[in-house]
Amino acid sequence: MRVALALISCMLSLAGIYAMLGVHVVAVFQVLIYVGAVMVFMVYVIMLLDVRDPSFVRRYSRLLLPGIVLGALLAGALGISAIRLGAPVIQPGAGAAPSYLVQPFSVEFLREYWLHFELTSVLLVAAVVAAIAIIRSGRRSDG
Amino acid sequence: MNAQDLAISLVYIAYALAVLLTFGAILTWVERKQAAIMSDRIGANRAYVRIPFTQVKLIWLGLFHGMADGLKLLLKEDFKPLAYDKLAYALGPWLAIVPVLLVFAVVPFGGTLDPGRLFPSLAGWFGGRTYPMQIAPIDAGILIVFAFSGITIIGAMLAGWSSANKFSLLGALRAGSQLISYELVMGLTVLGIVLIFGTVNLGTIVEQQSGTALGFLPAWGIVYQPFAAVLFLIAGIAENKRIPFDLPEAESELISGYFTEYSAMKQGVFMLSGIHRDRGHRCAVRHAVLRRLQPAVDERHRLRLPGRPRPATQSRLGRRAAVADLPRQGLPALQLPDPRAVDSAALPLGPAAALRMEVPAAAGHCQPGRDGGCAVGAAGMRRAMT
């Protein structure tokens, strides 16, 4: 569950970065789909699976110390690179070009990227078929 | 963003937060009164404020119960279960309330504000800038409302899961499935509005509703799509787990569902988020679906001077919220059997009049809120677990 929470915060931060770049539509859909739908189902499944999470008895995980060390290293590396590079390449909020508003975005999306959009549906169908196949093969081995 | 924008944004945020948080108290009173009316009681009417050094007690229909409830929740001891996931347990209430408050960032609550005209002494500083009365005039308005309200589901589920209590877990399961299901209905009903007005920007939608349809009808969303409006209302009641749909916190079976193990203000936060979630959705989509009392154009040309009372936004928001929240517990009363008939049937010996005389006394002691049930529940659970 902690890992799921971390993933949620990761998604939210990503949405925050998109919003800072002015792409509000992508940011909103990031929250709407990944947090509002995908992560809700993940949390739901985790909730159903096992109530006796180790976090109920032990407050801190064993990976806490390595995590802190790695996090400090990452933050240090980012800070050093930020100092070296100087000013940020993209000014936050400056990218709010009118083409990123909802209407132009959707028109552009369905004009330029309709093929990709349709291809994702093929991918989804493939995923559904694969899921059914996995379930069926599992049943056969059981029976 | 310069200093002027920042100042205006801060004023808007403070205004929205103040209105929201104080309305929680009043709506608690409304809810208690409704529950009382449903079960033929008088309801909250005991709390009063005494004017100092006099014997004058202001009761005002028990409106101070909101204040009393809030103080009680703040001052209560915060019981915690023995075994629980501390992080998720602490995070649950926040995940429930913060997205709900964030939703109000995109809800427009007025026309255009011209600070230079409102405060002539500041006119030089603002230099003729005008601001729409909306904290964040973002293009993707309705989408943001739905994106944020989706996060609150996680708060409810985290709270239920982390409490290590079977009642909480069951409540969280029910809450999760119910919220996910009705979220779809809400989204689809609003989709019709988006198609009609051709935009997802809440401010534009509101402006488009200031005209007339067919020459005589107001161009409100409810006129265009009455069926969607009814569906949205029902789905909204279900999303808020209010009475006909209160399976997630069914008091008779689950104590209070996913926040059984929460006490004091943490529980208050859950109740507040329920109320505000309600109002958030209503406000957001009342702009979209239901209606506006006055055209936005009207408001834009109205000169607001500092000495004059501001009639427009505040009272309208309040009236709208109060009126809209009335049916949420009033509706199921139609389906209930008449409590007087039930009571007199159960107690054939006692005259019905005596029974009814006891009711006000009981109403003063027994609170229809979930606080008592929750406290008992937490203690009971702890006993059961040890």
SSE topology:
The complex is a heterodimer of chains A (143) and B (386).
Chain A: H1 2-20, H2 24-49, H3 64-85, H4 102-112, H5 114-142
Helix pairs in contact in A: 1-2
Chain B: H1 3-38, E1 49-50, E2 57-58, H2 65-75, H3 86-103, E3 112-113, H4 115-118, H5 123-126, E4 131-132, H6 141-162, H7 166-197, H8 202-208, E5 212-213, E6 217-218, H9 221-224, H10 226-239, H11 251-254, H12 264-290, H13 296-300, H14 313-330, H15 339-346, H16 352-365, H17 371-385
Antiparallel strand pairs in B: 1-2, 3-4, 5-6
Helix pairs in contact in B: 1-2, 1-14, 2-12, 3-6, 3-12, 6-7, 7-10, 10-12, 12-14
Give an overview in words.
The complex is a heterodimer of chains A (143) and B (386). Chain A has a domain at 2-95. In chain A, 75% of the residues lie in helices and 0% in strands. Chain A contains 5 helices and no strands. The two termini of chain A are 33 Å apart. Chain B has helices at residues 3-38, 65-75, 86-103, 115-118, 123-126, 141-162, 166-197, 202-208, 221-224, 226-239, 251-254, 264-290, 296-300, 313-330, 339-346, 352-365, 371-385, and strands at 49-50, 57-58, 112-113, 131-132, 212-213, 217-218. Chain B has 386 residues and is mainly alpha-helical. The interface between A and B is medium-sized, with 30 and 36 residues.
Radius of gyration of chain B: 23 Å
Order of helices and strands of chain A: HHHHH
Shape of chain A: flat
User: What is the helix/strand order of chain B?
Assistant: HEEHHEHHEHHHEEHHHHHHHHH
**Helix-strand makeup class of chain B:** mainly alpha
Mean pLDDT of chain B: 65
